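User: Okay, second chain of the day. Same drill as before: sequence in, structure tokens out.
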Amino acid sequence: MTIPDTMRAVVLTGHGGLDKLEIHDDWPVPKPGPGEVLIAVGACGMNNTDINTRTAWYSKSVTEGTTAEGGAGGFGDARTDDSTWGGSGLTFPRIQGADVAGRIVAVGEGVEAGRIGERVLVDPWQRDPAQPENRALAGYFGSERDGGFARYTTAPAGNAFKIESDLTDAELATFPCSSSTAEYMLTRARLAQGETVLVTGASGGVGSALVQLAKRRGARVIAVAGRDKMDTLRRLGATAVIPRDAPNLAAAVRDAAPGGEVQVAADIVGGAGFPGLLELLGRGGRYVTSGAIAGPLVELDLRTLYLKDLELIGATVMPPGIFARLVGYIEAGEVRPLLARSFPLAEIRAAQETFLEKRHVGNFVILPGE
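Assistant: Same drill. Structure tokens below.
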């Protein structure tokens, strides 16, 4: 195929509100460097990560949760020197978008030309080629390097996983960030068959993936979500679904859990509900988190932690192997996409505004070709 010199892309020009997302129709098409591939983006998923990076929510100067107001307008007092997931600053301009599904259309030096034409899904974690296990050297697609909110993007060849699936690009783009994060959370928490896991924020991208992947492991899943989303989560495999506005959430969880306690709490909400999750864990229980949409600052009674022999686990930079497993699950049909809605690239601001309303179940996807 003929590769153009320019393309349509959404360019982030700085930290702040939706006005920092600029649409360009004449952005240069990137060229693959040594060991890289050029991908024609069929679809790119959208996540909290995109909004958090744009607004500098990762900065320790921001103490509130991911709200619709803050997500749309930004945080005026946010510092910029610690504004990314890794605690450093971001380089602008930047093309965001971590969840790329598409086809390889060109390769750089050292990559087999036979890969041209492959349908691929991109692992968003960019690892140091010489030290792939060193998580301190990792970067993220759409943060430390340009991502997929564009017609074309480049990626290290090892991050472009060939995938054989009847799913559409939009469906495939629901998986990379959300589902790999969920799989890593459950891996770090060592969730085992027969155990009970409590999933908060279960209707979002990571939450709904947690439900499916925990069920795949043979665990009993108790999901917490809005009342209008409960039926969908039951269809995904949740054993019990509890409305987040239940008069006594703890009592409802205890009624649903064998023995009145859970072995793992997989939390992406944080905020005021954090202490109650630890109380629901049995002795030796594990709490794992990869988000804090209700607020990053929480109260912790250390007596609960040490008297119950609990583990607190963070999950961000995943080691090699997690994404390859996920691709295998997709190809085997063991997990299914939960595509809430798709938007053309030119409507990315409207997409993020709608995303922030949190009325959906699953994932939003951007279509650069429309």
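The mean pLDDT is 96.

User: Thanks, on to the next one.
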